[in-house]
Design goal:
It contains two helices and seven strands, in the order αβββββββα. The protein is globular and about 45 Å long. 19% of the residues are buried. By secondary structure, it is α+β, with helices and mostly antiparallel strands.
């Protein structure tokens, strides 16, 4: 994870407003199954993007705004969670361990909440 090495941890509110990125397993389809992807969460723009792992500085493979998104930890195991987007699209992803899943779930929910409030204020 990009944010794990800080000696001084920022306050939780500021922590959730910082760009966050890392490797997650994404369920692509029944034929290809789970594929590693590089995910980037940009709380400022409210977007979640993903890239091929080997091409993370190249072409974006998917980008969705998180306003209206619902993030649900899976009951099937401690690593999987689903991001149901307002566009109707769904990302089913899996972290390497439960603590990493919780970090992603917390940050995605915080980002969606911030952008839901921004939409409500308009």
């Amino acid at each position: 994870m990009a944010d794990n090495c800080n000696a001084i941890q920022p306050a939780p509110d500021t922590e959730h407003r910082r760009r966050f990125e890392g490797q997650l397993n994404k369920f692509t389809n029944v034929v290809k199954g789970w594929q590693y992807r590089w995910f980037v969460l940009d709380p400022e723009s409210g977007r979640l993007e993903y890239y091929l792992l080997e091409d993370r500085n190249g072409k974006c493979r998917g980008s969705q705004h998180l306003a209206g998104a619902v993030v649900i930890p899976s009951e099937e195991d401690g690593q999987t969670f689903t991001v149901n987007l307002a566009s109707g699209e769904m990302f089913k992803v899996r972290a390497s361990h439960a603590k990493e899943r919780q970090m992603w779930v917390d940050r995605l929910r915080a980002c969606a909440h911030i952008h839901n409030q921004a939409l409500a204020g308009n």
